[in-house]
Amino acid sequence: MPGERRKQQSAAQRCAGELHAGLSATGEARPAGDTADGVGRARHHETSFKPAPESMYIRSAVAAAALYGVYPLLVRHAVVVWGSEALDAVGFSFEQADSGHGLGHFTRDYAHAMRLIRGLNIPPQELLTGLLGGIFHDIGCAMVRRYDEPRRIARHAEAGAILLEELFQETSLGLSKVEQDLVAYGVAAHTHYLKSMDVVSAEGITRKLEPYVDTINDKPILAVWLPRWVDRLDVNGAGFVGRHYLTLVEQHEDFSGSEQRFYTVNFEDHLRPLLRTPEEIKAADGNRTMREHLALFASSQNNQSPYGKHDLDLMVVMRDKQTARLQRIIGSITPTDPLHPAVENEIVDLWTIFLACNVEPTRRGRETAETLAARFRELPEDTQHAWCKGFLATMQEYIGWAEETMSTLNKLSPAERRLGNIVEDITEIVAPNQLWATTISSMR
Ligand SMILES: [Fe+2]
Ligand SMILES: [Fe+2]
Question: Are 351 and 395 a contacting pair, CB within 8 Å?
Fold first, then answer.
């Protein structure tokens, strides 16, 4: 019903607006500070950053962590201090990042890291550097346009590492120089290149991009692999479907890890509900559909793939649950047995709220979701039928993931659920917003 649709769209605006009001570091969009050397720098506020009195506290926390093995606490407090002061002080804003790599991804990365903390049997010092790198791995997306990357040698990962180095000059967070370097290196190396490749810059200069060193004597450098693990938990499951969909707002080139090349993505072609073999895709135009893109990611989430070969302990458990969710979603995206038109219409409205309130709860995320809703309704009928079923399955699977995740987050204190000035309470972003979840739950 058109009137009903209007009501629900305004609900999406209200939800995103309320969340936005509580997120002071995600305020007005600031210009991305790309510089001529190709690596963006965050714009500094007029008042320069002053080392916080909390740095004394952090140093004490490090000592306590070393003594009692309470690194989980240290990660939380380092993030709190970092988020509230250092990122804000250098003018960082998630509004500068694309909607697939903004506040929502950051929050889910933090939630994944908080879950992994207690389930990995690895030395606590490596947990500390690896999980900090995991939480901050994509902050460079606020400085480097993701879709300029095919023509850049210094990309969002390298920009994020440079930003971290700048932050470490302001405050050590109690980390030693070696730990700081490991965190920054892990962020730089989180994009997992399997082989070297030639990159032709916008000026026509060809440079060789080499994979990062990520093992020593065949043993994984965990400061590099943990950020990849944290990231992979959000390129899997229901959250990934939502954030990848948001990236379709502009035609772009996406990186194919398995083929080690970029391919073209546009909204209408990418949403065709096809699931072809790699040979069939190659024989066509070589461009994968979203369903095929999701299937490719799902197929690499195991210890036999170069991406998952070092996965262990709780990472394996969480990974497999996310993969099962993603596979169920992929299986649901078929044009046969379409839902009733009124139900489809409602699902598109609820999907828009889901994207705006949970997947990327920023002004930019909400505007992107609304733009895509209008474009979705122009797509061929078969595509709409298939994806309405996919949207429904995704939201239902998200509820399952959120229930699991909230059981960990609910054990955190209010201070631990607050990420400085960036997020008042991460549970508001992770918990399914009732504006869409109540109805979707009733559709089970
Ligand atoms: Fe990344
Ligand atoms: Fe990421």
Answer: yes
Contact, 393 vs 332, CB < 8 A?
A: yes
What is the 231 CA–ligand 1 centroid distance (Å)? 7
Closest to 294 measured CA to CA, from 349, 243, 259, 338: 243
H/E segment holding residue 253: strand 252-256
* Ordered mean pLDDT values, 10 residues apiece, the chain (444 residues): 44 50 34 34 36 46 51 67 68 85 93 89 86 92 84 92 86 84 96 92 90 95 97 98 94 65 80 93 87 96 97 97 98 95 97 98 95 96 97 98 95 81 90 97 86
CB atoms within 10 A of CB 138: 27
CB atoms within 10 A of CB 53: 7
The Å distance, Cα 191 to ligand 1 centre, comes to 6
Two tokens, residue 78: 């380092």
Give how far Cα 92 sits from Cα of 30, 152, 190, Å. Answer: 8, 22, 20
Q: Quick one: which of 52, 107, 14 has its CA closest to 430?
A: 107
Ramachandran class of 292: left when φ > 0, alpha when ψ lies in -120 to 50, beta otherwise: alpha
pTM value?
0.85
CA torsion 338-342-348-351 (nearest 10°) is -100
- β-strand pairing of 261-265 with 252-256: antiparallel
DSSP H or E stretch at residue 135: helix 124-136
Distance 85 CA to ligand 2 centre (A): 22
Backbone torsions φ then ψ of 250, nearest 5 degrees = -130, 145
Alpha carbon of 134 to ligand 2 centroid (Å): 8
Residue 315's contacts (CB-CB under 8 Å, 6 or more residues apart) are 116, 119, 120, 229, 233
Domain map (residue ranges) of the chain: 2-442
- Phi and psi based region of residue 143 (left: phi greater than 0; alpha: psi -120 to 50; beta: remaining): alpha
What are the DSSP calls for 312-355, one per residue?
A: -HHHHHHHHHHHHHHHHHHHH--SSSPPPHHHHHHHHHHHHHHI
Based on its alpha-carbon atoms, the radius of gyration of the chain, rounded to whole angstroms, reads: 21
The CA-based dihedral angle spanning residues 231, 271, 374, 252, taken in that order and rounded to the nearest 10 degrees = 60
Q: Which residues, other chains included, contact 301 with Cβ-Cβ below 8 Å and sequence gap of 6+?
A: 232, 236, 307, 308, 319, 320, 322, 323, 326
Ligand nearest to the CA of 161: 1
**Structure tokens given for 395:** 């939201």
- Read off the amino acid at residue 400: G
- For residue 358, report the distance from its CA to the centre of ligand 2, in Å: 16
Distance (Å, whole) CA 443 – CA 411 = 30
